[in-house]
Amino acid sequence: MLAPEVEARPWAEQLEEDDGAYRTQLAYVFERSAFYREKLGAAGFDSAGAAGGLEDIARLPLTDKRELRATCSPEDPIGAHLCASPAEIVRIYSTSGTAGSPSYVPLTEGDLDNWVTASARSYAASGVVAGQRIVSTYNAGPFAAGAALAAFERIGLTHVPVGTGSSERLMLTVEQLRPEAAVLTPSYAEHLIERAAGRGMDLRGSSVERVLVAGEPGGGEPAFRARLEEGWGARVTEAMGVGDIGVSLWGECEAQDGMHLGARGFVHAELVDPETGHALAWEDGASGELVLTHLRHRAAPLLRFRTRDHVRVRMTPCSCGRTGPRVRCIGRTDDMLIVRGVNLFPSAVREVVSAFQPEVSGHILVRPRAPGPKQEPPVPVRVELARGREVERALGEAIRERLREVLVVQMSVELVPWGSLSRSEYKSRLVER
Ligand SMILES: [Zn+2]
């Protein structure tokens, strides 16, 4: 642990300390954020005092990204939630906007430092230690993921940036510089197994002992993870961040049973029902959408921000000694389909299908027939066969049957030859929209 006095602190103590930070954050927001003064005022909270403490947080309205975007204008490109003066801002990231124009994430020097601290704790949970080498494949450019790179130096690692889109360079780097760890998206980690095999390289016998995956859900699906671990001959753990809130907020430890909140003390996490927005209790096995609140942010703090990440919770004590809840991301609520009342995550479809390896490649594409989340069965899915396999009716049937058993959803399975579904070097698209 980078900071055992923080990371192993009893969770109740953490919440007590967070309550004080939250009240201070609320006062700051009421003083400086035009967005929240108006939003909270409209909900009947005219002062920080009226909003209470963490115990009362579920009484406050949720914040949706679209609301923030709606306050942006040519005069105010960041939005009405900006709290700091231009002189205080040291960096501005952007997130990819769905409507074309990006939205901006400003940071003060302190915000950035907190991001790096949280990120360092999250990545260090994987077991990487000072003195080791880590090769990274982020071409973060304008995106917040770039801030995570500073975490590697903070841990004391030797960081070897390679970037995305140069698999050959990456494999040479692994062969020549012999890094103990690699950090990439799960899609890219999988892609490299195929690439290395094509090149006759023995990835399993390489120096890489730990593969840290982040940037998209899926790194925790058991069958997918087993394939990555087998292909790399390495232990795979995952990390997760939310561009608007912080980079690498969560990181998984060597027990590989969900991600710990590396951003504890900086961010408060809640669980809500994505349909109703109602708060859910942190109970072992519970699942819901993650909602996050800044506790010590200065540039543009967010309260009860809907992350659209759907997670399952682990509350049992972890053998690593870190306290607090752990989460496993099971998909984006944006990708979630609802089929006759049953929630269907494309990542869950991929997990079920992956169990049919070596017959299939593991690549899938769910193809909803209607716009929006609500779908009528059967939901079509394309399943790619493994290299050299031919379409067999019985296999399609077996997959369809297994999907129905495990996910309780009727799907129609179309088997397609190896190589027909597009590969991504960054994030896989599992749903056709
Ligand atoms: Zn742990």
Describe what you observe in this structure.
The chain is of the alpha/beta class and 433 residues long. 30% of the residues lie in helices and 25% in strands. The protein is built from twelve helices and 20 strands. The strands form four sheets. The chain has a twelve-stranded mixed β-sheet with strand order 4-3-5-6-7-8-9-14-13-12-10-11, sandwiched between helices. α6 (109-124) packs across α7 (149-155), α9 packs parallel to α10 and α11 packs across α12 (393-407). The relative contact order is 0.12. The mean pLDDT is 92. Bound molecules: zinc ion (ZN). Zinc ion binds at residues 253, 255, 260, 318, 320, 322.
Concise summary:
This protein is α/β, with parallel strands linked by helices and 433 residues long. The chain is 30% helix and 25% strand. The chain contains 12 helices and 20 strands.
Structure characteristics:
three-stranded mixed β-sheet; binds zinc ion; alpha/beta
Order of strands in the sheet with the most strands? 4-3-5-6-7-8-9-14-13-12-10-11
**Residue share in helix:** 25-40%
Largest sheet: 12 strands, mixed
What is the average of the pLDDT values? 92
Proportion of residues in extended strands = 15-25%
